[in-house]
UniProtKB/TrEMBL annotation:
Residues 441-491 are annotated as: Disordered. It comes from the Bacteria. It comes from Microbispora amethystogenes. The lineage of its organism: Bacteria, Bacillati, Actinomycetota, Actinomycetes, Streptosporangiales. It is an enzyme of class 3 (hydrolase). This is prolyl oligopeptidase.
Length: 750
């Protein structure tokens, strides 16, 4: 036993194994733990389960934390509505519900259409995505099981609940772009895995599918010959005129765009009954080959010479809106030379979303634009013709809004979600005719009598006919915020760059050194915006401090902010986080023996980097679904898709940068590391659980600290959405672990 250690850990044999990278031999003693099917891995995992259960049994306030978190989770939640025809579709979860249920409102009734819990009472099946047809009479939906995120796509008749199409496998939250009439749709599907053994999660293609047909007969539309890690989106305007396809290579911050006029000529005949352009569209480049993200917005009824809009960060790292025409995309030369800037880039805010509003009831065509200023959402109203800002739309607080939802045919209404650190999510509706913003009155109605079912294929469990009773969707008031105050602070990082952080505390000022949690993300251009966070509220109401750092690598200050923390510059992210740590300690918010770190996924890498680079600054660390062995990341999970974000061991310079910060390779034997909890899921197909198994075994071997170093495994769930009870149980364990080692007593919680 290492001196200072107070417990024995499960046996994990160290192998004499190494791998050579560019002439540099790197040891990997726990490589065998990457194989989940190895009998040794199974035995090790079972022993870790027993250790975790024994340690958890000694946590004195676990049940108190669980009750507090359950109370903060007890609110109804709905998605922004998607109106189609005379129906409105939305998801809704009642307080205490395991999963959101897909509801449809129309003809005087609100009724469930797809209920995951009815499909699988165990709670392991998730509704991943759903797409109503243009007319609203059909709905495509995607379900996954056991956390694997491998979806099955089906189509249901909305009026009867009868399944009319599917299952279509080898999809993963694919977009579904319906053609008018509901006879066919475009979507993205992976190739047959037998064609590329070992690369089953890649090789995507865009197809055209006829409802009711065998998916193996679908027409290939796009993707042949492109890189295996390419991701695609596809969209069709509601009038069926314009097809757009976008492509990104892995997570590279660049989008290639193509556009086709489905009313124009085609190369060959398409699907039976869908002759011409839909089956073989003549896709023309809108924007390809530049390191910029772009997204098209095309209104129904648009002719080739009419305006179309792009939201892009080309020559504008914080984003701008430009105007062009479809005709301009079909001409030679640099397309961007014919762009006209409608809404210019702002120096202090990041463009997030854009919704054109063209309605005869409006005095003029308008545009609603959303921004984030230092991670806080704002909305402005503009003249769609010349881009002039006409007004700012006041929001309920300093929070975060979701993507805009509008009627596909256009109109004067925009729906979007809103929440902040103390306000649960709710849906707001903006009316451009009156300039008013209000809470959307989520529809609710009593059950209606069942209609006569028409003959058709059998309906799978969970797809409900019209007779299923509705559930109330009325939004309840937000929980009382109590003594939770949010403060945004700015501080210099190691190189002098200003970094910001949200600090949630009882009084908004550092009155004493309280138990604290610091979290962040710092990757993939993802912003840490103000969102409703039950674990933060519970922690602060118990007397602690909860801090969220907005680090480089994220998107809080635009694409340049993201690129400043990518690839060989990744250490910048960890330096920002260390500066946030020093601020919390230096200004008296907390102390090293009271400060815990929490991170998930890429944020789990961040937490582990903090652990291995500055172990003396933290009282406890929790890594949820983390990347840890950065030299192995390209062979584990979805790692090949992330080369643009992290770099590749195939490049000598990038290899050196990865090795320098890779947490698995920074552990030093005999150092007193603080207590650590690794929380993973066996169905995680994005970040392989092997990362955590290897790091846990290594720390258990190397640390001279009293521990514990623990491994928590969830079964039947994955990296994405899961049942509410599963998420609640994880959060209760995480908060209880941090509270035990940071000295926070929750006895005073209501």
């Amino acid at each position: 036993m290492i001196e200072g250690r107070t417990r024995e850990y499960p046996a994990a044999p160290r192998e004499d194994r190494s791998e050579v990278f560019h002439g540099h031999a790197v040891v990997d003693p726990y490589r065998w733990l990457e194989d989940s099917g190895d009998e040794r891995t199974r035995a090790w995992t079972a022993a870790q389960d027993a250790l975790f259960d024994a340690e958890r049994a000694a946590w004195p306030h676990l049940e108190k934390w669980r009750i507090a978190l359950a109370r903060l989770y007890a609110f109804p939640q709905s998605s922004a509505p998607r109106p189609r025809g005379d129906r409105v579709f939305f998801t809704h979860r009642e307080p205490g519900g395991e999963h959101p249920v897909l509801l449809v409102a129309g003809h005087g009734a609100v009724r469930p259409l797809v209920d995951p819990l009815s499909l699988d009472p165990s709670g392991r099946t998730v509704l991943e995505a759903w797409h109503p047809s243009v007319e609203g009479d059909l709905l495509a939906f995607q379900m996954s099981a056991d956390g694997l995120e491998d979806c099955v796509l089906r189509v249901v008749d909305v009026a009867t609940g009868v399944l009319v199409d599917g299952p279509v496998d080898r999809v993963r939250r694919t977009p579904v772009a319906w053609l008018p009439g509901g006879r066919a749709y475009y979507y993205v599907r992976r190739l047959d895995p037998r064609l590329n053994p070992g690369e089953e999660r890649y090789h995507r293609r865009v197809y055209l599918h006829r409802v009711g047909a065998d998916p193996d007969d679908d027409v290939l539309v796009f993707g042949e010959g492109r890189e295996k890690t390419s991701f695609y989106t596809v969209a069709v305007t509601p009038d069926g005129r314009w097809l757009s396809v976008s492509s990104t290579l892995g997570t590279r911050p660049a989008t290639d765009l193509w556009l086709a006029d489905l009313a124009g000529p085609a190369d060959v005949t398409g699907l039976d009954g869908l002759a011409g352009a839909p089956g073989r569209p003549r896709l023309r480049a809108v924007r390809t080959g530049t390191p910029a993200r772009s997204r098209l917005h095309i209104a129904p009824g648009t002719a080739p010479g009419d305006p179309i809009w792009l939201r892009t960060d080309l020559d504008a790292p914080r984003g701008r809106i430009v105007v062009t025409t479809a005709a301009d995309t079909d001409t030679a030369g640099a397309v961007e030379e014919r762009w006209r800037t409608l809404v210019p880039e702002r120096p202090d805010a990041v463009l997030e979303d854009f919704a054109p509003l063209r309605d005869p009831a409006l005095p003029r065509p308008l545009a609603l634009v959303s921004w984030t200023r230092h991670a806080v959402s704002e909305i402005t109203l503009h003249d769609l013709a010349d881009g002039r800002e006409l007004a700012e739309v006041p929001l309920p607080g300093r929070g975060t809004i979701g993507r805009f939802a509008t009627r596909p045919e256009g109109g004067h209404e925009v729906w979007f979600g809103y929440h902040d650190h103390v306000t649960p999510p709710r849906v707001l509706r903006y009316d451009a005719r009156t300039g008013t913003l209000e809470t959307w009155p989520c529809p609710a109605a009593p059950a209606t009598a069942p209609p006569t079912r028409t003959p058709g294929p059998s309906r799978p469990p969970g797809v409900s006919p019209a007779s299923v009773p509705s559930s109330s969707a009325t939004l309840s008031p937000a929980p009382e915020p109590g003594s939770v105050t949010t403060t945004q602070v700015a501080f210099p990082s190691r190189d002098g760059t200003a970094v910001r952080m949200f600090v949630l505390s009882p009084y908004g000022v550092p009155d004493r050194r309280r138990p604290a949690i610091l979290t962040g993300y710092g990757g993939f251009g993802t912003s840490m915006t103000p969102v409703y966070t039950p674990q933060a509220l519970a922690w602060v109401r118990a007397g602690g401090v909860y801090a969220i750092a907005c680090l480089r690598g994220g998107g809080e200050e635009g694409e340049e902010w993201h690129r400043a923390g990518m690839g060989p510059r990744k250490q910048t992210v960890f330096d920002d986080f260390d500066a946030a740590t020093d601020l919390l300690i230096g200004r008296g918010w907390t102390a090293p023996d009271r400060l815990g770190v929490l991170g998930e996924s890429n944020g789990g890498l961040l937490a582990a980097a903090a652990l291995t680079q500055h172990p003396d600054k933290y009282a406890a660390v929790v890594c949820v679904a983390p990347l840890l062995d950065m030299l192995a990341s390209e062979r584990l999970g979805m790692g090949p898709s992330w080369r643009a974000e992290y770099g590749s061991v195939r490049d000598p310079g990038e290899f050196r940068a990865l090795l320098a910060y890779s947490p698995y390779h920074r552990v030093r034997e005999g150092l007193p590391y603080p207590p650590v909890l690794f929380a993973v899921a066996d169905g995680d197909t994005r970040v392989d659980p092997g990362h955590s198994r290897k790091m846990c075994a290594l720390l258990q071997h190397a640390s001279a600290g009293p521990g514990p170093v623990l491994h928590r495994l969830d079964r039947g769930v994955g990296h994405g959405a899961g049942a509410a009870s599963t998420q609640l149980a994880l959060l209760a364990d995480v908060v209880a672990f941090l509270a035990r080692h940071c000295g926070l007593d929750p006895v005073g919680l209501p």
